[in-house]
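User: Second chain of the day. Same drill as before.
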Amino acid sequence: MEAVFVFPGQGAQRVGMGESLMRASEAARSVMAEADRKTGLPLSEVCFNGPAERLTDTGFAQPGVVAVSLAAAAALRERLSTEGIQLNPSYCAGHSVGELAALVEAGALSLENGMSLAAARGRLMAEASREADGSMVAVMGLGEAALTAVCLQASSESGASVQVANLNAPGQLVISGRRSALARASELAKAAGARRVIPLEVSGPFHSVYMAPAAEQFRSLVSRAELSVPRCPVVLNLSAQPSSDPIEIRGELENQVTGAVRWSDTVRVLSESGSNLFVELGPGQVLSSLIRRMSRDAVVLNVEDEASLEATVERLRQIGQ
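Assistant: Same format as last time:
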């Protein structure tokens, strides 16, 4: 049996994430212990006990979400092994920093290298955010072309930059940039027919030109990271195309910090490939909700805690019969 494994990004974090998986799974405990060791951060402590303000900090949120996602994947493999159920990823994909978890699960990165990069990415993006005076805004009801035009006009009029950062689902996009440009873009988006414009509670203008200082430093780390041919293709954020080429994957990691996440196209490409079984691994069900919205035929399962692990194993047992 094959499934698409998907991994959430920053924003999925919540206090307590991963704790019940640690109680239920030796494999999950091993992943979290390695994540703590490799990052030099008290990830387990902050993920389980917070406080929320610390976990929400980009420097903790990004490696925390990656660590818990990989712990969920390890717990699922361990549990399926005891049941004699075969499940292999046909593709992996991750949203933003979740792409690092996807690359580890696919075998393109080792757990150690993946966690080191996640910690560095979070730290560098947090530093860039403190200098940027920026944020992000969700825009509902406009297409990419119309919203891109809005961003260009707002950037011109405000003297600052705003750009499309996340294409999460048709009509559900996110823009990112300096606050002055975001304010003007929000006005223009409403005038252009947007149904809703929602400021997001994030600490910076992620996936925008204001992350360039972070991208520059992260690029040097990525250039030295060991990358292997993955066991299954990974659908990349920037191109929304599957790749098993370490050179392409390295370029993706180097440029993804400032580029747009094309999640809507990712789901479309996976659906067109014939994939209809998805498993979201990690905290929350944001990606599960987006996949269900875009692919009505998809069977979408998730693993974020002990209860969802058992429910997913039971559903996979039924599917395999």
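Strands lie at 2-7, 88-94, 134-140, 162-169, 172-178, 196-199, 234-235, 242-243, 277-281, 299-303.

User: Great, on to the next one.
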